[in-house]
Write a structure and sequence with these properties.
Chains A, B: Keywords: DNA damage, DNA recombination, DNA repair, Metal-binding, Zinc, Zinc-finger. Chains A, B: GO terms for molecular function: DNA binding; zinc ion binding. Chains A, B: A zinc finger (C4-type) spans 57-72. The structure is a homodimer of 201-residue chains. With 201 residues, chain A is of the alpha/beta class. Chain A is 47% helix and 10% strand. Chain A has 9 helices and 6 strands, in the order αααββααβαβαβαβα. Chain A has a 4-stranded parallel sheet with strand order 4-3-5-6. In chain A, strands 1-2 form a two-stranded antiparallel ribbon. In chain A, helix 1 crosses helix 2 and helix 2 crosses helix 3. The radius of gyration of chain A is 22 Å and the shape is globular. Chains A and B meet through helix 1, helix 2, helix 3, strand 2 and helix 6 of A and helix 1, helix 2, helix 3, strand 2 and helix 6 of B.
C-alpha cells in the first residue's frame, strides 16, 4: 500500500475520535481534502484552542476557559439552594437541555472505584465538602449514573450531606418515557415499583 | 444553554466531518477534553499539515505532498502498460488493497456531468489525452463508479482511447461475491447475465 505519508498520518490521527474506525477515518480524511479544506483548517484551529485553553471551573470542576464557568457565575443560579452532583461535564449539557433544573452543579469527573484506586479526593469530594460547609445549600441532587459505582458514589456523598444536615436526593430510576414495559429489564422494572408514587387528585 | 464558547465552537467545527451529527460531535469533544488532550493536539497538527501541504500529483492527480506521487514515481509501475482511470483518490486506496493491480492510475476527481457544468477539462481529460499520446499505454482500465455519470464518463474516455488505438476495458458489473441472488437488484442481475463468461477447463 503506497499512499501519501501525510495522508496516512492524518487518517491514523483521526482514529483518536470515539466511534471512528479505519474506514470512517479514511472517509473523513478524503472528504476534507477533496471538498472542504477550509473546514479542516478551521477544525485544526478550534482543536488547538480548545485543548490548550479549556480548563476546569474552580467552583464546579466543569470545562471552561475562564476561572469560573458561566453557570457558576450566573447570579440567578447563585441564589438557588440546590446543588446537582454529576459524573461528567457532558451530563450537565444533557440536564441543561431538559430546562428542568436551574440550580448549581458539581462535577466529579469520575466515580468512586476502589479497585481502580479512585478515592474521594480523586473525584473532588474535598472541594465538595468545603462547598457544603461554606455555601447555603438546602438540597443536593445526586445525578450520578445508575451503575454500581454511580450508586456507591451517590451513597457516599449522601452520608457527607448528612454531616452538614443537608437533604440529599437521588434522581428517579424507572421505566423510560415512551418505552414498553415488556422490553424493560428486570432491575429497572423493580426500581420503578420501589419508587412508585401516590397519584394525588 | 450555557456552555463554554470555546467548547461550543469545537463541537460545531467537528460537524464538518462526514457522518458526524450534533450528538457525535459533542461526544467527540468531551472525549478529547476529558481523556486525551494530547491526541486532540496531535490531530490538530496533522490536520493543519495535511490541509496545507497535500496537493495533487502532476501525473495522475491523486493526493500527494510531492510533485509526483509514490505510485507514479515507482519504476516497476512506470514499466507497466496499463492505466486505471478512477473517480477519486479513495478509489486508488480501495484498488491497491486488493493487491490485484500493479499498473499506473489516473484520477478524474469527479465525473462528466453536463447538468452541473462539469465538462471534460474539469476532470482532467486534457491531461489524460496528453498522457495517452506521449506514454506507452496498451490498455486503459475504466474503473469509474457504476452510475449513469460514471458509465457516461467511461464511454467518453473509451472513445478517446480509440483515437490512439489503445484498448479500453470496463471493470465487470455483476453479483457481489458472498451475496445472495435473491437479494441482488434487477439491473445488477441483468448486468451479470450480459457479462457472463465461459468456463474453461
Amino acid at each position: 500500500m503506497q499512499i501519501s505519508p501525510l495522508l496516512e498520518s492524518l487518517i491514523s490521527a483521526l482514529r483518536c475520535l470515539p466511534g471512528v474506525g479505519p474506514k470512517s477515518a479514511q472517509r473523513m480524511a478524503y472528504h476534507l481534502l477533496q471538498r472542504n479544506r477550509q473546514a479542516g483548517l478551521h477544525l485544526a484551529h478550534e482543536l488547538n484552542e480548545a485543548m490548550n485553553n479549556i480548563g476546569h471551573c474552580k467552583a464546579c470542576r466543569t470545562f471552561t476557559e475562564q476561572e469560573i464557568c458561566t453557570i457558576c457565575a450566573n447570579v440567578r443560579r447563585q441564589s438557588s439552594d440546590q446543588l446537582c452532583v454529576v459524573e461528567s461535564p457532558a451530563d450537565i449539557f444533557a440536564i441543561e437541555q431538559t430546562g428542568q433544573y436551574s440550580g448549581r452543579y458539581f462535577v466529579l469527573l469520575g466515580h468512586l472505584s476502589p479497585l481502580d484506586g479512585i478515592g474521594p479526593s480523586d473525584i473532588g469530594l474535598d472541594l465538595l465538602k468545603s462547598r457544603l460547609a461554606s455555601e447555603s445549600i438546602h438540597e443536593v441532587i445526586l445525578a450520578t449514573n445508575p451503575t454500581v459505582e454511580g450508586d456507591a458514589t451517590a451513597n457516599y456523598i449522601a452520608q457527607m450531606c448528612n454531616e452538614f444536615n443537608i437533604v440529599a436526593t437521588r434522581i428517579a430510576h424507572g421505566v423510560p418515557v415512551g418505552g414498553e414495559l415488556e422490553m424493560v429489564d428486570g432491575t429497572t422494572l423493580s426500581h420503578s415499583f420501589v419508587g412508585r408514587q401516590k397519584i394525588d387528585f
